Amino acid sequence: MIMRFQTIIGEPNEFGLNLVDPRINSSKHYQIGEYAEDFSSVLLTDISEEDAPAFRNYVGYIEDVVVEEESEEGDE
Question: pTM, whole model, 2 decimals?
């Protein structure tokens, strides 16, 4: 499952980088996906169906993202 979360832009760290992080404090499995062009949101991927309800309660949750699979037949 893929979900979109608002990002929080942090203070520069010791390397001068602003950390962009959704507010996820979780032991649950997920991956950081693609950021919006303006870094206002980020996709979190690989969320299991069992973990999804918990993720919807985190600060910054925006929406579930549905990815339609491309069919291989329509390219004629």
Answer: 0.75
Lookup: tokens for 6: 């608002």
Joined tokens for residue 37: 């062009």
User: Of 73, 4, 52, 60, which is closest to residue 32 (Cα–Cα)?
Assistant: 4
Which residue is listed with tokens 């942090």? 10
Place of tokens 């969320």: 47
**61/27 Cα distance (integer angstroms):** 17
Secondary structure (3-state) at 40: coil
- Tell me the three state secondary structure of residue 9: strand
72 pLDDT band, cuts 50/70/90, is low
